[in-house]
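Why predict the complex rather than its parts? Because the way molecules touch one another can change local conformation, and only a joint prediction can capture that. The input here totals 778 residues.
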Amino acid sequence: MISLVPLVVLIPLASAAIALSIPGRRRAQQLITVTALVLVTALAALFMWVVDTQGTLVMQVGGWAAPFGISLVVDRLSALMLLVSAVVLLGVLLFSLGQGLADGDEETPVSIYYPTYLVLGAGVCNAFIAGDLFNLYVGFEILLVASYVLITLGGTGQRIRAGVTYVVVSLVSSVLFLAAIALVYAATGTINMAHLAVRIAELPGNIQLLLNLALLIAFGIKAAVFPLAFWLPDSYPTAPAPVTAVFAGLLTKVGVYAIIRSQTLLFPHSNVNTLLLVIASLTLVVGILGAVSQLDIKRLLSFTLVSHIGYLIFGIGMASEAGFTATIYYIAHHIIVQTTLFLAVGLIERHGGTTSLMSLGGMLKSAPIIAVLFFIPMLNLGGIPPFSGFIGKLGLFNAAAQLATPGAYWLMGVGALVSLLTLYALARVWSLAFWRSRAAAMSEPSAPVPATTEAMVLQGREAAMLEQLHDAPDAQPLQQQRATPGLMLGATIGMVAVSVALTIFAGPLYGYSTRAGAELTSPDALIERVLDVASLPGGSGTTSLAEEYDAYAGIGGE
Amino acid sequence: MNAVTLIHPLKAVVSAPATGTMPLVLILAMSALYAVGVYLLLDRSLTRVLLGFLLVGNATNLLLFLTSGAFGSAPIVGEDGVETMSDPLPQAFILTSIVITFAVSAFMLALIYRSWNLAREDEDELVDDDEDIDVGQSEALTTSEVTEEDVEETPEFPSEGEEDEEEVTIPEFTEVLDFGLGPVSFDADFGAGSGARDSNDRSARDGHNGQNGPAEGGSA
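Output of the joint prediction:
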């Protein structure tokens, strides 16, 4: 079982290599990609079951003992993240297959798209199973380099411009991460996370704080928390719809995952929790205010993405078992729902020819299925009771009530407000794109020219508000309206079904999250598991390693 | 705890190799690289941003190297005693990071080249604006000078490869040519050739302009 762990990285990487070597054969590439991701999904589901019943899986790559070799660790949190990511990757892949088949792959240069997508998946999986900081860095780099290619796909002027922002910001965050690793190594002499957990605790408090902040800044840029999030709404919306969907779902969450790991395993007694709570509230508020003022659905959703990262940081900042539990459930919910919403917007863009709210209208009649596919995740993200968004937020507020500090209560208030504002922002999309009659939309020009203010006033308060809004600076021109292929629709329906399943199976999933949260708050078991020499495969290797330890112990004494 | 007893001997080795002093020169070099790199990263020009990234990346590599403490012998088992070896781990990090930096710089270069191409395409479009066309139609002399430059550039595009560029740029050139030279010199020399065959037509024009341009310029 343990030897299966690296497969979640190896299968996508090997498949990417194979797919890259047969550039002309699109069918074969698609088959390889789908097969690889189905395998990864199955493996992740298997891991989740095994980890939950038999405990954490630790693989020491090459049989080298923990602090020397590379450890791959799958605990409950990793397994859940792997499964959710694999499902999202698969769902979005099917969506892009549908789009590619319908458009003759005009937007996605065939020979590059599928291999790069697989490499992205490999990077995400590698980050989730990394047992040491440097491997986490490598995982980040794999997924980032793949994302550079995906975000500039096609190389149009708009995408290059957005891509430059994204690439430069990511490069800076990577350099900061690497520098932080250097500092951590200088202070402790190890980068194995389980080993670090022991070593960092022995360091003086101020050095701990320095290391913690260095890592937090690097992860914060990737997770897009408030002061470090301005790159996101500028770069994500310009990519092709499926790419935006998978970025929105996964990439920022890898950053959040890294923050969870560093706050629970490396710095369990850190004193940045108040800072995290402040950042969380600012991320929540600033993000959602950005969303409310947008006219382009993709940009609007990008801002809600930033905003809802605040909920996750909120849970981490509380640093209690209930807080981590709620965060874990919320991550799973948010990855699925945000991706689903972006896929639905992809359908809207196809059907309506644009994502600008100024020109969309009457889609409830013309495309009732898309309307339903947007409506369900919209309520879900806004936190309307039966759905998983409500359950996640309830868990967070519950944890805050248990903590009962002024900061926690303040964040409960902010969280509730932001939840309402999310619903408001999305309801505006709903009323403009779906409820408004097509004629009302057509009476407005696609650009907000003052000359047509009269026409807008007729629409009452909504129009008065629209006047103050600006179209997205890079708003795409009205495209040709195209038929929606069945596969795209099917993939979106599948993702909506998964998001609803998070609600239906909320009991078992929340139970699992609780166990994962408990695991995070008491990391001793994980540390012992990773550093345990006796559990190494191969008896002969064990003895020789033990001898090496003795040899080193002799030197250390000098 | 089992884990703690196990770690202690290791800790003594890995975190306490600082028997010598840290090389001051490397620290100064690292600081200089960081300073210059950050300065360049803040520039508007993408090429400078790339250079800045390379410098900052190298500075970080030096930082990683400095974490291994004092210099030692090459970390190869059997070459020298364990006591005098330098710490191999930072060197492994640096190698990985160099490879990653290399790949990313290659991508950045491609990105910069693409954005430069796009910027140049924008400039090409400016040639087609209304005023230019007016000027072109009013004076044959000016037009021929403009088209001469364009025609000189045309051979570059097919040889550089990308199909979409070919599709975009060449029709533009023919448009410019149509506005300017069509009525002026076309009928005189190639009246017979300007029939229905389009591809012939275009190559004939191109060849004609290339020859005729300098002559007209010279007459001025």
